[in-house]
Every structure is written in C-alpha cells, then in structure tokens.
Q: What sequence folds into this?
C-alpha cells in the first residue's frame, strides 16, 4: 500500500473556490466516508481548514484511486472537472509523506510557521480514528507528522518570526484603522480561531471585548478564559452599534453580517471564515474596512521568516528522510520473516529425516546436532537479512525484498501472511 494525497489550497486556488469547498464537521465526515468507500482505498483522512482541503489515503493502486478522490473534490466544488483540475495537486508515496510533514510544520500555511495547523492535523487524525477510516498506515504517518510539527516549534522561533492569520489580519487593520488601545472588539465564534483572536486583541490593548456564539456555553467558556464579556448570538445587532473592530470566524453556511446590521460609522471587519461571515458588498461602504482571507493571502504571499523557515525546512528534510528510511526497512520485514520461517522449516524437515535414519540417537546428541544446524542457518542468513534492511533504507528503485523473495523462491502467501493483522513473526 502507498500514501496518496489529493488536495487544493490557498497556493493553488482562489479564495472563492476554497469557500465553495469549505466543510463543516458533518461535511468532513461525509467526505471521509466517501473516500474510504472508494475502490483501492484502504484508509482515509481529511485535513480541512480555512485555506486547504486535502484527502490522504492509503491505496493499493495509483490511477484508479487518484481518479476517485479527484472526483470527490470536483463534485463538492460545483465546478466542472476541466475548471477544477488545474487547482488540484496530487502527491504520491514519498512525496505525500514530505507534503504532510511540510503542512504540519506550518511551511505550507498561508501565514508561514503558524501553529494552528497542528491542531487541525490532530483533528484530521481524530476524526479518521472515530469513524474507523484511519488504520495503522495513516495513524503512523499522522502521529509522526504531529511530532515533526512540535519539533519545528520547539527547536526554532518560527512562532515569533511568522504571524498567525489573526495577527497578520490585525496588522492590516491597524494600518487602516489605528491601534486597538481602548477599542471595543466583537468576536463572533468560539473555536480555536476565535480563541486566538480574543487573546490577541486583549493583548494589544482592547478594553471592551465581547464574544458571541450560537451556543452560549461556548462563548461563556472563552470569555472566562480571557476575562472578557460573553453574549448570545442574537445580541449581534446591538453589539455592532458601538464596535470598532469585528472578528468573525464561525464557519456558518449563511452570511452572519449584512449591510442592514452595520451602523453608518467607522468599523473594521476581519472575516476569517469560509464561507464568508460578512457580506463582501460591505467593502464598498466608505465607513467600512473589510479584511478577508483573500486580502490576507495577497499580504502574506511569499512572505517567509528567513532564517527560522530555513531551520524548519532542515528539520522537515531530516524527518522525511528518517521516516522513509524506517518505512522502507519495515517493508522488507515480512520477506525476512518468511525467509527465516522457511529456513526453520528446512531445519525441522532435516532433523525429522535424521530421526528416521538414526532412531537410536540419544537426546543429548540430537540436541547438539539441532543446535549446530540452527547456528549454521542463523549465520548464513544473518548478513543477507541485515544488509537487505540497510539497502531498503537507501533511495533507489530496486526492490530488495522482491529480489530476496525471488532468490530463495519464497511463497508469496507466506510473505503476505506476515503482513496481515494479528500475524506473529
């Protein structure tokens, strides 16, 4: 089996297309189920964020599976296949591993180095585990990707060098509306992005911050954490009347803020939601400043954190090489186990033949003969099996496991039996 990734992100598609592809929790579960049901797909996981939608799958065939997974994304886009395909990317096997490690470390994010993607990758793994679409292959891959992301943030200052989407948006807002000292801020939503927004505006000097959410308990919890106010979502029209800054990140299917709710006074909106929370037409109102994900994408385009990014890239390169080497070495294990099982069978057969020819052989002598024969077999097989694992970890197109199986005429069913769940080496 091999890992396949089919996806679309802010690097390959306009925000309008990403908006049409945005999924809520139920949508993610539906896409997971559809992906897992495809022919040739053994496992599936979905990474869904405000600026990417990716399907990861463990597959036994490239062409059939890439067609099926591509079709799933095309269907959800509302576009024709011809219009959608130029925005999709495909990574297979080693390249898929490298891509996920880059994503988890923040190198592929709109705000390079942001740490929120770690939680989103963890959610992708959790959802797949809960629905039973993630098995040993993707579990191992995602667990290692999470470790890579944590290492990148622990060993570099990429967190400080690269802004979060919220910080980048607030920087843009300050350029047009001034700093937040003494400002009234309305945060609509109560997820991780809303939490980050609340923490950031509070740290930057906002004195009246209110969190609104459709579920009051969620708003209350976030408000208590940062010592701000909470309100029900139906209070939004009232709270907007005195707001200086509004940060929205709900992921609702419909617009949350339309022109009739917005007062005729200066107000800045930061819309971090997909689909949009704020009516894009408000950008044309003279008293409104609207900062959307499209604006952020342009502002952050090709901005990187220099030395810190280089350090993270070095870590990712190391980790990709180590993971692939370990995976390649593990791929020959079933063949090595099958070879040793065959050798054990040969020894057992010859000892049985010896017993038939020398029925009066005493137990001590028989034990010595058996031990000697086994030592000979172990020594003969030791170097080839050690060397085949070393060679398997090197880059190249040669399948040393296949060569070993051919040289010793190993039964393919015996090799397959070692890879089945519950088999014992």
A:
């Amino acid at each position: 089996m091999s890992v396949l990734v089919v996806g679309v992100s802010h690097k390959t598609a306009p925000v309008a297309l990403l908006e049409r592809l945005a999924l809520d929790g139920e949508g993610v579960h539906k896409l997971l189920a559809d992906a897992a049901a495809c022919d040739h797909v053994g496992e599936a996981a979905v990474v869904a964020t405000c600026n990417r939608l990716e399907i990861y799958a463990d597959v036994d065939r490239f062409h059939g599976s890439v067609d099926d997974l591509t079709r799933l994304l095309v269907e959800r886009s509302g576009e024709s296949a011809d219009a959608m395909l130029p925005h999709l990317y495909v990574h297979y096997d080693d390249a898929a591993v490298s891509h996920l490690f880059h994503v988890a470390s923040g190198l592929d994010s709109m705000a390079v180095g942001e740490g929120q993607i770690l939680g989103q990758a963890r959610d992708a793994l959790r959802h797949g585990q809960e629905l039973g679409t993630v098995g040993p292959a993707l579990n191992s891959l995602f667990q290692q990707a999470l470790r890579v992301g944590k290492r990148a943030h622990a060993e570099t200052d990429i967190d400080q060098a690269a802004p979060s989407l919220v910080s980048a948006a607030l920087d843009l807002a300050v350029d047009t509306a001034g700093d937040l000292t003494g400002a009234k801020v309305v945060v609509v939503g109560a997820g991780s992005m809303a939490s980050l927004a609340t923490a950031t505006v509070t740290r930057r000097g906002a004195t009246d911050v209110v969190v609104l959410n459709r579920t009051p308990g969620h708003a209350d919890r976030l408000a208590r954490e940062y010592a701000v106010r909470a309100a029900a979502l139906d209070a939004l029209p009232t709270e907007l009347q005195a707001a200086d800054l509004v940060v929205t990140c709900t992921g609702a299917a419909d617009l949350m803020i339309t022109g009739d709710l917005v007062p005729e006074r200066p107000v800045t909106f930061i819309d971090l939601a997909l689909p949009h929370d704020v009516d894009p037409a408000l950008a044309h109102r003279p008293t409104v400043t609207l900062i959307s994900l499209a604006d952020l994408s342009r502002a952050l385009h090709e901005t990187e954190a220099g030395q810190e990014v280089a350090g993270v890239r070095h870590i990712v390169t190391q980790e990709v090489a180590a993971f692939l080497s370990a995976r390649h070495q593990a791929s020959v294990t079933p063949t090595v186990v099958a070879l040793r099982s065959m050798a054990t069978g040969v020894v057992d057969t010859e000892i049985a033949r010896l017993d038939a020819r020398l029925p009066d052989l005493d137990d001590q002598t028989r034990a010595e003969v058996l031990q000697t024969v086994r030592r000979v077999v172990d020594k003969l097989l030791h170097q080839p099996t050690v060397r085949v694992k070393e060679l398997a970890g090197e880059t190249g197109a040669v399948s040393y496991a296949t060569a070993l199986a051919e040289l010793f005429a190993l039964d393919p069913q015996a090799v397959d039996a070692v890879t089945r769940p519950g088999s014992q080496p």
Strands lie at 2-9, 41-49, 52-59, 89-92, 184-188, 208-213, 229-232, 245-248, 267-271, 288-292. The mean pLDDT is 85.
